[in-house]
Amino acid sequence: MIDELARIPPHNIEAERSLLGSILIDKEAMIKIADQVDVDDFYKKSHEHIFESMRELYAKNEPVDVLTLGNKLEEKKLIEGVGGRSYLVGLSNAVPTASHILQYAKIIKKKSTLRKLLAAAEHINKLGYKEDVDEVETVLDDAMQHLYGITQKHLKQNFVPINTILHNAFERMDELHKERGKLRGVPSGFTKLDELMAGFQKSDLVILAARPAVGKTSLALDFARNAAIRGKAKVGIFSLEMSKEQLVDRLLCAEAGVDLWKMRTGNLSDRPDSNDFPKIGHAMGLLSEAKIFIDDNAGQNVLQIRTKARRLQAEHGLDMIIIDYLQLMNTTGNRSSDNRVQEVAEMSRGLKLLARELNVPVLCLSQLSRAVEQTKPAIPKLSHLRDSGSIEQDADIVMFIYRKAADRNYQLEEIPPDERSLGEIHVAKHRNGPTGVIKVFFDAARASYKNLDTQFETGAPPPPPPNQKPPSF
């Protein structure tokens, strides 16, 4: 029986020699693989030293040949350790042509990845035997980071010729033309908002922000419900604040049109004129068929959310992610920092990378700073995003919710009765389209927003009068 501990790690010395030899005989070879192979991808230590010296010469725009490489290794007192100049000559004679260097690089990278996986497995194995572990989450974080570091290197994409991109763009436009009127993205269920954004787009990071008690979670759940039931989308919800039972209560009441408080207190009516139970039964049928997946573990970080989202995508498919909310997330690796702005910047950047990696829209809820309440009306601005300016920078879309009835600057009697249930969705940033204000109806009893048949005002300037030039920007 083979001793497991005596196994030699995966490697291919001939591929390493052939790659190094190709660089020595072809000055263009290094350009082809400089971003494909790293120094630590080589199994043989002497090959590491040789490749590192080659890269140093290449970085200085100096020729890489037997003579210059030998001199470089001599300067670093490594020439004897790699086998002397005769070994370098042997490398240059190892291959007749450098045309296969990309294949050599792939072999080396594959073997390196397998070795790193084995090293990560060994590290994780040791973690499992540690006695002085306070929190098992710390161990899980450590383990995931090791695997995350390996997989990240395989997410990088090389340059793509513009003709390929143009071909894909034309096919996409042709498909959209044939299906005019059909949303390009995941539907929000709000007619005017979908007209403004064309739905939630793949790889977009969307921030939905408001002060407490304005209805961030309610609107996010309306998006999820409409997308899953009406749009047949698969939606993953990470709730860091509310339990899954609370979320389901809200989803059920909003879909059924039943008073949330009555349902929670058991005061539902069975009178024929109210039909609470039939409504709930119908809503349960719709929601049970909807592809909504809820994770209510508190205090998760981007790495944990990423791991779970990837698994969900692999097992069930995934069209949209909702996270409630940003400021309740932990930093990756359970690291604490005195600089909250830096922590939030790390998290917002991680969420944007998550959206790009999984190629789905990520809707993340966020708090606003108290500074917004110092103005009347307290309509949010991008500068009011709490804890970090990087949220605005990383986000493709930033939306704010404003309701005069929730504005602390107004007494209820100051607000006309017909305006007390009105709300506004302010699209303050839209990287690939217009900004605007969408008026909506807020049903407080059912904790739900609904369409309001009013026109939105785009953030673009109005068209100029006839014979007048438009303003320049």
UniProtKB/TrEMBL annotation:
Q: Which GO terms describe its cellular component?
A: cytosol; primosome complex
* GO terms under biological process: DNA replication, synthesis of primer
Q: Where is this region: Disordered?
A: 452-473
State whether keyword Cytoplasm applies.
no
User: What InterPro entries does its record include?
Assistant: DNA_heli_DnaB-like_N_sf (IPR036185), DNA_helicase_DnaB (IPR007692), DNA_helicase_DnaB-like_C (IPR007694), DNA_helicase_DnaB-like_N (IPR007693), DNA_helicase_N/primase_C (IPR016136), P-loop_NTPase (IPR027417)
Keywords noted in UniProt: ATP-binding, DNA replication, DNA-binding, Helicase, Hydrolase, Isomerase, Nucleotide-binding, Primosome
Any GO MF annotation of the entry: ATP binding
Q: Into which EC class is this enzyme placed?
A: isomerase
EC code = 5.6.2.3
Catalytic activity annotated for this protein?
ATP + H2O = ADP + phosphate + H(+)
The answer to keyword Iron-sulfur applying to this record is no
**Residues of the SF4 helicase domain:** 179-456
- Range of residues in the leader sequence: none
* Source organism, top-level taxon: Bacteria
Instruction: Specify residue ranges for compositional bias: Pro residues.
Output: 460-473
Job of this protein: The main replicative DNA helicase, it participates in initiation and elongation during chromosome replication. Travels ahead of the DNA replisome, separating dsDNA into templates for DNA synthesis. A processive ATP-dependent 5'-3' DNA helicase it has DNA-dependent ATPase activity.
Tell me its family.
Answer: Belongs to the helicase family. DnaB subfamily.
**What name appears for this protein in its UniProt entry?**
Replicative DNA helicase
